[in-house]
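Allow me, if you will, to draw on your knowledge of protein folds for a short while. The matter concerns a single protein, recorded as an amino acid sequence and a row of backbone structure tokens. Could you please explain, in whatever detail you think fit, how the structure tokens follow from the sequence? I remain grateful for any guidance, and I place the record below:

…
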Amino acid sequence: MMRILSESTFAMNCALLMTACGATVSLGGGDIPSTGGTTTISENSGGQPSFDSTSGGSSGLRTSPGGIISGYTGIGGAPRAGMIPLAAGQGRPTSIAVDSTSVYWTNFDDGSLMKISIAGGQPVTLASNLTYSAWVALYDNSVYFNGPTLMKMPLTGGTPVVLDTALYNDAFAVGPSGVYGMDNDGTLIRVALDGTSRATVVPSSSLPRAGVSYGIALDAKYVYWTIEQEGYVHKAPLAGGAPVTLAHEHDPGLGIAVDATDVYFGSGWTLMKVSVNGGDTTTLANFPAQGVTLDGDTVYFTDFDGGNVYKVPKSGGDVTTLATGQMQPWGIAVDAYSVYWVNAGSEQGSYPSGSVMKLTPK
């Protein structure tokens, strides 16, 4: 099947980050100048524009030294219409957050905190030379990140403020009462937003199994978290107190998100939900969920090993594949129009192959 796209539509969907009007887009049939007219793109059997990954390197992107994309040839497989890379050549990005204007992410390998406009452009380095950086969250005009020291800075950049030096390099969550994360012995800690105090929320000795957490979420009263070891899902009052085990699925606990009624979490090879009050678990999808986020009636999640990005109704039903052929997709975020995720990239070779992706509509 062949589809004729106008040059303006093609440029918006596939090459938003061109560095000059004379830049080219690499297609299966050759390089076509961005100078007007129409572009013929073959469409595969799945209804997706078909591109060749011919630019070399494991990222499938042609980038300038500064990281601006100058040609888009697909990442791992045929990209979905409306899917664009915002940034390429990143050093193993793992976590992502988005606000009304910008996308923020952490690069684990090179220890950097990055930012880019949701419309694309030049990536901005907000912090660098960290030991490593694994998580990012936004709250009240500040961006919070670890490296492994927990820090924050204004969304516009500036000098980082150190909040805590002893939180383990796992997930954390931020809300009005503070920053919640794990100590190195599995104790759940709350750090004040200004870093002036820290308190134990749940000691590791109160848990059936302490361990690493890849997901922490907050609501108005409770903190919820997964434990990788044996797939525990717990909750506890924000101010501290006895933990409640909501689920014990035995498979590794991964990403987590919460709404007014339910907790959504990855457990081994499944995406599951359980009531915030506990009870039976419900399987929403038989795919791993490394990163999990919510929007309205929908759960969005990434399958790290399978290289796919999905969505599914909160109430259950058909799972929709949003992207395939991604290179180890991890963190995921949504706004009113789009879904964003980071591809950690290949662990082989010295070339940074991580990327930041955007899909519109979600």
